[in-house]
Design a protein that fits this description.
The chain has one domain (about 10-290): ABC transporter involved in vitamin B12 uptake, BtuC, CATH 1.10.3470. The longest helix has about 30 residues, at about 10-40. Helix 2 (about 45-65) runs antiparallel to helix 3 (about 70-95), helix 2 packs across helix 7 and helix 9 packs across helix 10 (about 275-290). The protein has helices at about 10-40, 45-65, 70-95, 105-125, 150-175, 175-190, 195-220, 230-245, 250-270, 275-290; strands at about 140-145, 145-150. A two-stranded antiparallel sheet has the order 1-2. The chain has about 300 residues and is an all-alpha fold. The termini are far apart.
Length: about 300
Amino acid sequence: MEFATNISLASLFQQVLVGLSRTTILFIVASGLSLVLGVLRIPNVAHGSLYMVGAFMTYTFASLFGQSALGFWLALTVAPLGVALISFLVERSLFCHLYEREHMMLLLFTFAFSLVIGDMVKLIWGSDYRSLTAPLFLQGSFSISGFPFPRYNLFLLMMGPLVAAGLWFLTNKTKIGKIARAAAVDREMVGAIGINVSGVFAAVFVIGCYLAGLGGALVAPTQNITQGMDHAIIIEAFLIVIIGGLGNIWGALLGALIFGLTDSIGILLLPQFAIVFPYMAVVIVLIFRPKGLLKSTW
């Protein structure tokens, strides 16, 4: 086992930027999971499956327009909305009737939902790999301080702060966000003053699932789109939520930053064992901060 010793400043800078762009995907997916977890108190195991559906939908809509710039923007808009629509229909037809049940039953329901989604994806798109090319204006590289950096990764770096700002505005400046925060603290009191808690739960669940679909849409041009891509992301998302603080969206951002950067730097330092670095970071965080880096809403 040998560490890389000939690391240049350029390669280190590039890996940090790549790690930050991967952080964007991890944060978007984990923030949706954290939102549902914080308000509904439900670990949504199907979250990764909805991320996979978002990626496949993006491929389908983009392909309809020959993977042009118009097709890309349409897919980036429609695919997450399609995931949100699926989640809304499931939540209103099935999920909303289970809120009074034990959390274990809700957890099992989301697990069963993930299995159904996996079979539906296989039925609709098959088991073959799919790939999506970024539009021409996002292909190639920029030069940042003399270092080349892929345009699409730079696009991801821009999307991260936009989503974070949108979530901050939603949770702090809108009526639904304030009610959701109140419901996370004391849902019985919120219901007692006449607020439709079930409707709030539906809105939060749909928003969280929308973020899963958005993460899948954004990641589609960067990797193969295939069945099984949901398994890795759901594990990583749960770990990020845990080390950030259960239900804390800003904790999810911090956890995603740690996970993304340690993975990227690990590839540079020790490529054959790079997968270990993020999990080592998780273990170290939990040793010193068992309840997470930021305050949990649980």
